[in-house]
Amino acid sequence: MASPATVGPPAPPHPDKSPHPPSLKRPRSSEDDTGASSPTKKHKVDFNEHVTVHPPDDPDDKPDDLVREEVRSALSQQLQGNGSKYDQLKQYFTTKPHEDDALSTKLLQKYVTALSGHSSSLNRTCASLVHAVLKCRWLGRDQEFVNAYARLLANIISSHGGFTQSVLHMLVGKFDQLRATEGKLPNHEVIKLPVLRKRVHSVLGFLLRLIPSANASMTSVLIGNFPYIDENVKRHKEYIGNILRLAEYAVELKDRITSMVTERLVKIDVQMQTRLEDLEEGRAEVLLKEIFQEQNDEDGDSDDTGDSSDDDEDLEPDLTAVEKQELEFKTAMGKQDAVMTMLFEFYDPVFRDGKDSAINQNFPVILHQFVNTVLPSYRSRHTQFLIFHFAQSSPALIERFTESCANIIQDMTRPRLVRMAAAAYLSSFIARGARIPARMVKDVVDLLASQLEKLRSRYEIDCQGPDYAQYAPFYGAMQALMYIFCFRWRDLIMLDDDSAPFQDEDIFDCQNLHWHPGLFDTLDKCFHSRLNPLRICAPQIVSQFSRIANMVKFAYVHLKLDSNKRVRLSKPIVAPISNYTGFQRRDTALTVKSGESGLIMEAYFPFDPYQLPRSKKWVESDYLTWKSIRIGDDEEDDSDSDGDVDVDDDEVGIEPIEEDESESSP
């Protein structure tokens, strides 16, 4: 058997040469030796100065694929700890448009679009990039860019809800800090402030519609961006105007937004009363005239002609203390007037159109805000005129408001001062409302008279004498009833169905007028009870009621008033009202006095004359001013004066802000 052949290594090609050690150097081919060109060989480049060198392509023409890859790579490397490309990406968005290295709008839009495609990667590790995107000057660019930017924001918050508040804060922050310069970018058409505002709302509305869960974050964002109460008029007007605009398309937020505005309005209202108390006597009237003139001068001026920056309302350091107080008062009143005007304008279309569905949606909101925000605020002076105006839109709404006040008056679970405030609001509404029918006047008089009778029967058993602290609800109801009588006594006269309308001169043609049933008996019992309301109720109201009641031959109480001059009031033994009601009574100039003035009622009726100059037009036709009693000069009466009884509004209803010595005298 033949043995297998042995295969040896091939013979070396050049057996005459010695073997060489291995080398990394590429061996040269025969072509190299002959000088033939190789496709991989680099040639020396000679530049010809006469040849035109073309610049690189326009950066705006950078391919979309290349931009997307650049963004992907930057995000990927950031996760691996290499942030150089990531930092460059942030810089694209934060560089100001006028700087030399700023990207054009066209190229920046490509990065915006690329980021939208990678929005799922923008997690917490990329928070700084998201914040850089939010700092981008986007409002003044073309509409195509704005649309792309809005889509990026939507993708960010839909992918990562943790960025929702940051995005919303950026948008809402522009409500009162929008500058005209944002619409003046290099190489762009100038975009005016109204268009910039429209873009903000367009993007915000787009996000809220696309991502309904974002609505849940809006309340805290809106509260957080609200101007401080000491901010100037312009910032309040811009911010509140914008959130009311938001309420028009963000229906879910409407009730909360209007509540926020009402709460701020009450704070400004209280601030204005505080500023008024700081003024010297007589200066308020002068300042009101100045404010009215200034408001007229400003009418027609546009807020869109410049930046929304702080203006000359800021206090100057060289003002005297008095000048500073006066400027603070004017600023507070200006804010109050501006916000009231905006709220009137906001609700007016709803009630003017008269659609029941819209009215039934909005009036309960206004009523709720009144009950929960305005009513407990004893010092509110103008905010309540919203419900005063809109409640008179129809008889049905008048009835709803009066019923609400009546229910509070009779609700013994509520603090007594809240019930007393409700009585003051109800009586002031009935007395001052120009559209209140006579039937409603009589119904409210019946309600208060019934309440008086119940309270008198309950309190008189243990009563040792007049005591405001102990029997405050009784005195509140009595003062409310007397106030209504001063304004509406004509509606309380009983006439035959075929009788002509009552004229003031008829007082002297009738020996005995027929008055609303039970009214005189109820009041007469109260006047002569041990509770002695004529000693506790505000002297201005008591004095005016006495004059009118005597003149119209309803009642003669002068003898009781004379005897009351000898009745001395003493401080109550019982605890102060606030201690057993849970409702803090307001400290006033009267309550801190040691004399009797602190033991009688204030003449507080919340619908006393409206003072804000610009928004006053909204309530002028709703408002019943004081109507004097017209009598002939040759007639005699038992009052202190003959002729026309012409009394100013302030004699009958004194604002709660005027709490000085003069309130204690008729």
From TrEMBL:
Residues 45-57 have a biased composition (Basic and acidic residues). Keywords: Initiation factor, Protein biosynthesis. GO terms for molecular function: RNA polymerase I core binding; RNA polymerase I general transcription initiation factor activity; translation initiation factor activity. Residues 1-65, 295-315, 632-666 are annotated as: Disordered. Pfam families: RRN3. The keyword Protein biosynthesis applies. Residues 633-666 have a biased composition (Acidic residues). Transmembrane segments: none annotated. GO terms for cellular component: nucleus. GO terms for biological process: transcription initiation at RNA polymerase I promoter. Belongs to the RRN3 family. This is RNA polymerase I-specific transcription initiation factor RRN3.
